[in-house]
Structure formats: structure tokens, C-alpha cells
User: Fold this.
Amino acid sequence: MIYDILIVIMLIVSVLTIVSIFMQPSKQDGAADAFSGGSGELFERRKARGFEAIMQRFTAIMIGLWLVIGFVLVVLSTK
Assistant:
């Protein structure tokens, strides 16, 4: 019973994780930057703000939740 509920929750979290990854803003202007010397921005650290920050946090939470549910499912499947 609890195993089946966790499987369904894991599927929902998986879909939400995929959607949140696809919704994150692109950090690359174009493929030409890789060859034309766009390496100045490679080592630049800037703090995410607004929508980008929300999506990064949401994605991190979804991945953490997915891992915890996965570990719980492994433990329950061994019993």
C-alpha cells in the first residue's frame, strides 16, 4: 500500500523535475560562443535573481525529494 503510493509520488516528482529543468532560462547565448571566445563568462559567478532563482531552488528541492523517495523505496523493497 505505502509502496504503491510512493511509486505514484515518485512519478509525479519525476515529471515536475523534468518540467522545472526545461523551464530554466538558458545560460548560453548561442553555439557560436563556444568557438568565438565566449570564455570570459565561463568563470563569472553571478547570483540568480527572480524567476531564475525560483527555478533553481524548485529544481534542487525536487531532485532532493526524488532521491529521498528513491532511497525509501529501496529500503521498502528489501523488506
The two ends are 14 Å apart (CA to CA).
